[in-house]
């Protein structure tokens, strides 16, 4: 029985994706776990993994074409099995413009979240072969770099990438566009024009289109500050014992790469367990209480931000938190997050400690109710039992959606969060 492969939702903000390249062609044998295609989303270029086994009977969305989440992009079944689009719709390879709107309406049984399903399909039409992916589509490049290359008519296969794993980034295209021997330009010069009059004011400059990711960030942040009334609560944490714990564990192989941020993740999970109301959110004008504690780690990349999510962080041991968080963040920075990395977050952490930041507030990620801003650890004088001592102090601020989370809830969370870091034996439970 043939099964439809649908465009999965690869991040919480994804509504559609563009097939950059197919790694399999019609007639190929497919096994579970095989990478079928690479998709450009608003966050990153991600790979679609097969949860089916059989023959790739038909590619409905060819390379270079976009599809909405849930649209059928391919069909897998037995060798020689006939397929045709349901409800008389044409395969996408025959009519690209109609494919997303005319996806099958037949009921399916999903196998994984927003990914695949089983479906009985009627015979007869032969599958149309998808056009081969262009050379540029197979090249590793950030979404911003692809957009700039298209605007400047640059062939990506001729550009040497300097990003992670040879990925092409914006500065590589700036360098490629510069004449030999010239310095890399820091901006795109505007055409010559008359100097503005003193009354007119202003200065020369240039306009560059926002990348897909920056467009999404702009829209989501505007949505957050206009829909969620932010309320802020801060505290200071003495990190003396937490730093000692990190120093003791970092020499052990199972804690390789342990950082203060890993302790913060574990402390956040502890705090949410004690005060679960900060894990809540507003959805469809109702109170949403998640069944899990899934902590997003806001991660800076070249084009903007990604938020890989540590699922059920409260159930993980500290060493497992270290392993899962390191792997997820490394995949995000390399531009290769897993399909499940960017979905399901219930609470986020924004850590700017590496930038020598004394204090800041963060904007709540839409769909969530709280975010924790973590600043640098700085040595400061503190009063202990009537004496003034120098201690490593870390300031944190929680931003909450004041519609559902009030100061008492935020204060409770910070009390337990602070307790976990100042008595880090609690992190080892």
Total strands: the figure is: 20
> Strand sequence of the main sheet, in spatial order?
3-6-8-1-10-9
N-to-C SSE string, H for helix and E for strand: EEEEEEEEEEHHHEHHEEEEEEHEEEH
Mean pLDDT: 81
CATH hierarchy, class of the largest domain? Alpha Beta
Rough outline: globular
Regions with little confidence, pLDDT below 50 for 5+ residues: 86-134, 179-190
**Which class best fits the helix and strand makeup?**
alpha+beta
CATH homologous superfamily of the largest domain, by name? Chloramphenicol acetyltransferase-like domain
Rg, rounded, reads 25 Å
The largest sheet, given as strand count, sense and whether it forms a barrel, is:
6 strands, antiparallel
Question: In DSSP terms, counting alpha (H) and pi (I) runs of 4 or more, how many helices?
Answer: 7
CATH architecture descriptor of the largest domain: 2-Layer Sandwich
Measured between the Cα atoms of the first and last residue, the distance is 48 Å
CATH topology of the largest domain: Chloramphenicol Acetyltransferase
Helix content estimate: 10-25%
Range of strand content: 15-25%
List the helices and strands and how they pair.
Layout (H helix, E strand, L loop, with lengths): L2 E4 L9 E7 L6 E2 L4 E6 L4 E5 L4 E6 L6 E3 L3 E6 L31 E2 L5 E3 L24 H10 L17 H8 L34 H16 L2 E9 L1 H10 L10 H15 L6 E3 L2 E3 L6 E3 L1 E3 L2 E3 L2 E2 L7 H16 L13 E5 L18 E15 L2 E15 L5 H16 L7
Helix pairs in contact: 1-2, 5-6, 5-7
Question: How would you describe this structure to a colleague?
Answer:
- This protein is an alpha+beta fold and about 425 residues long.
- It has 3 domains: about 120 residues, RNA polymerase II/Efflux pump adaptor protein, barrel-sandwich hybrid domain (OB fold (Dihydrolipoamide Acetyltransferase, E2P), Beta Barrel), CATH 2.40.50.100; about 40 residues, E3-binding domain (Dihydrolipoamide Transferase), CATH 4.10.320.10; about 200 residues, Chloramphenicol acetyltransferase-like domain (Chloramphenicol Acetyltransferase).
- It contains 7 helices and 20 strands.
- A 6-stranded antiparallel beta sheet has the order 3-6-8-1-10-9, with no helix packed on it. A 6-stranded mixed beta sheet has the order 11-20-19-18-14-17.
- A hairpin with a 4-residue loop joins strand 4 and strand 5.
- Helix 1 runs parallel beside helix 2, helix 5 packs across helix 6 and helix 5 packs across helix 7.
- It is globular and about 80 Å long.
């Amino acid at each position: 029985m043939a099964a439809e492969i649908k465009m999965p939702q690869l991040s919480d903000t994804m509504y559609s994706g563009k097939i950059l390249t197919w790694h399999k062609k019609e007639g190929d044998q497919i096994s579970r776990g095989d990478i079928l295609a690479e998709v450009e989303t608003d966050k990153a270029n991600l790979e679609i993994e097969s949860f089916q086994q059989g023959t790739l009977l038909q590619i409905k969305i060819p390379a270079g074409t976009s599809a909405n989440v849930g649209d059928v992009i391919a069909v897998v079944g037995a060798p020689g099995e006939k397929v045709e689009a349901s409800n008389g719709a044409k395969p996408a390879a025959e009519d690209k413009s109609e494919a997303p709107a005319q996806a099958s309406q037949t009921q399916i049984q999903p196998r994984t979240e927003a990914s695949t399903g089983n479906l009985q399909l009627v015979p007869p039409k032969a599958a149309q072969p998808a056009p081969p992916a262009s050379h540029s589509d197979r090249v590793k490049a950030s979404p911003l770099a692809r957009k700039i290359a298209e605007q400047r008519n640059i062939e990506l296969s001729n550009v040497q990438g300097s990003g992670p794993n040879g990925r092409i980034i914006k500065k590589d295209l700036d360098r490629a566009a510069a004449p030999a021997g010239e310095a890399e330009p820091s901006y795109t010069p505007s055409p010559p024009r008359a100097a503005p009059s003193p009354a007119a004011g202003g200065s020369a400059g240039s306009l560059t289109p926002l990348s897909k990711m920056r467009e999404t960030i702009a829209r989501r942040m505007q949505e957050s500050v206009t829909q969620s009334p932010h309320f802020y609560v801060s505290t200071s944490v003495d990190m003396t014992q937490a730093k000692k714990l990190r120093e003791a564990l970092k020499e052990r192989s199972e804690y390789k790469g342990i950082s203060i941020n890993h302790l913060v993740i574990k402390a956040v999970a502890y705090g949410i367990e004690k005060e679960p109301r900060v894990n809540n959110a507003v959805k469809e004008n109702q109170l949403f209480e998640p069944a899990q504690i899934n902590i997003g780690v806001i991660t800076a990349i070249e084009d903007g931000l990604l938020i890989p999510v540590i699922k059920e962080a409260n159930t993980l041991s500290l060493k497992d938190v270290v392993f899962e968080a390191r792997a997820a963040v490394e995949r995000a920075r390399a531009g290769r997050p897993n399909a499940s990395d960017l979905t399901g977050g219930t609470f986020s952490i924004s850590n700017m400690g590496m930038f020598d930041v004394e204090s800041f507030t963060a904007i709540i990620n839409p769909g969530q109710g709280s975010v924790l801003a973590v600043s640098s650890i700085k040595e400061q004088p503190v009063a202990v039992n009537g004496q003034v001592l120098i201690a490593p102090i870390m300031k944190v601020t929680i931003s909450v959606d004041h519609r559902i989370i009030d100061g008492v809830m935020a204060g409770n969370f910070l009390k337990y969060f602070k307790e976990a870091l100042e008595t880090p034996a609690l992190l080892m439970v």
